[in-house]
Amino acid sequence: MWPVNLVKMECSECHRINYYTRKNKKTIKDRLELKKFCKFCKKHVLHKETK
C-alpha cells in the first residue's frame, strides 16, 4: 500500500486550518494554493498548504 500524502490547507486571512487534501508529491513540487470557502471568514479566500 502506498503512503497517503495528506496536506493541511490554511486560510490566508484567519490562519486556521480548514481543509485536508491529498497531493501527489512526485508530480507537484510546489505548495498548493487553492481558493476555497472559509467558514470562519464566511467568504472564499486563498488557502495555502502548510507542513
Task: Report on this structure.
The protein is an all-beta fold and 51 residues long. It has one domain (6-50): Single Sheet (Rubrerythrin, domain 2), CATH 2.20.28. It contains no helices and 4 strands. It has a 4-stranded antiparallel β-sheet, with no helix packed on it. It is elongated, with a radius of gyration of 12 Å. The model has no long low-confidence stretch (mean pLDDT 92).
Fold-level CATH name: Rubrerythrin, domain 2
Identify the CATH homologous superfamily: Ribosomal protein L33
The count of helical stretches stands at 0
Major sheet characteristics: 4 strands, antiparallel
Secondary structure topology:
Layout: E1 6-11, E2 17-22, E3 33-38, E4 43-50
Antiparallel strand pairs: 1-2, 1-4, 3-4
Task: Give a quick summary of the entry.
The protein is mainly beta and 51 residues long. It is built from no helices and 4 strands. It has one domain (6-50): Ribosomal protein L33 (Rubrerythrin, domain 2).
Keywords:
single chain; Rubrerythrin, domain 2; 51 residues; elongated; mainly beta; 4 strands
